[in-house]
Write a structure and sequence with these properties.
With 276 residues, the chain is α/β, with parallel strands linked by helices. It is built from 10 helices and 10 strands. 43% of the residues lie in helices and 20% in strands. Strand 2, helix 2 and strand 3 form a beta-alpha-beta unit.
Length: 276
């Protein structure tokens, strides 16, 4: 049985997936390839990714995803895993050559931990300063973003994995983190790093996904707060972000925050009535 099963959800991003897999090919990691398997779980349309993987990366385990969102897609990969530990990253990430060895060292140094998170670094720090730039940077821990986490397989299955009610990639990893840290200590390993691309998001695209984003946020909050506190917390966060973006002259991001504030109350009320 290998020590690690590396689980990579993908969806219509073959070129990025290929760059990620090249970093995990036999001989690319400082850890022996016999100590890990790589699973690609594919939520993309058509058969493009399957043919691409089988032609260029025949050493991976490929599986079709359930097409019910990223949480369900990760769970699907975990069901195929045989490793003692599950390592999650994304198809657009570039793992460091020492990525898996650093995790193995962390396991030896912290036997009390059944979960770890690694560093997520942007591929362009200057681009990250631009208006509408996004990248899940994690340099100090306590984020547990699914682009770079490690969980013991037994614990993952005991917790039933990621909550599949989360249909888009937002907050599902934070919700999982809440359940994980109720069961074990979680250690941050700076040397277990991946590079994540910085993207300049479209304002129109973000606004289009705003209702789904608020639903994911509501799902995360509803188990801990009542209706009033959920609204108040969301209002404070968006208002603070709005002011910060105005000061930084990030006017598109500020407009997004203002729009969120305007629809926050009716949307949260709708979700409560709908009993999401």
């Amino acid at each position: 049985m290998p020590l690690f099963s590396v689980i990579i959800p993908t969806c219509n991003r073959n070129e990025m997936l290929g760059l990620c897999l090249e970093r995990l090919a036999p001989g690319s990691q400082t850890m022996s390839a016999l100590q890990y398997q790589v699973i690609v779980t594919d939520d993309g349309a058509g058969e493009g990714a399957e043919a691409y993987c089988k032609t260029n990366f025949p050493w991976i385990f490929y599986t079709h995803g359930p097409k019910r969102g990223p949480a369900a897609n990760r769970n699907n990969g975990a069901q195929k895993a045989v490793g003692e530990w599950l390592v999650f990253t994304d198809d657009d990430c570039l793992p460091d050559a020492n990525w898996l060895s650093a995790y193995a060292e962390g396991i030896n140094l912290h036997p009390e931990c059944s979960a770890f998170e690694g560093a997520i670094l942007p591929n362009d720090w200057n681009l990250l300063k631009k208006d509408m730039a996004e990248c899940p940077v994690n340099t100090n821990g306590e984020c547990f973003w699914s682009a770079n986490i490690l969980v013991k397989s037994k614990l993952f299955h005991f917790l039933n994995g990621f909550n599949e009610e989360f249909k888009i990639p937002a907050m599902e990893d934070k919700e999982f983190y809440e359940r994980v840290r109720n069961q074990t200590n979680v250690s941050f390993l700076a040397d277990a790093s991946v590079i994540h691309p910085v993207r300049i998001m479209s304002l129109r695209g973000k606004l289009k996904k705003l209702p789904e984003s608020l639903q994911n946020w509501y799902l995360f909050e509803k188990g801990k707060n009542n209706f009033f506190h959920i609204f108040l917390k969301g209002f404070r966060f968006q208002a603070t972000a709005f002011i910060g973006h105005l000061k930084s002259k990030k006017f598109k991001a500020a407009f997004y925050n203002a729009t969120t504030i305007i629809i926050l109350l009716p949307e949260v009320l709708y979700l409560k009535i709908k009993n999401v």
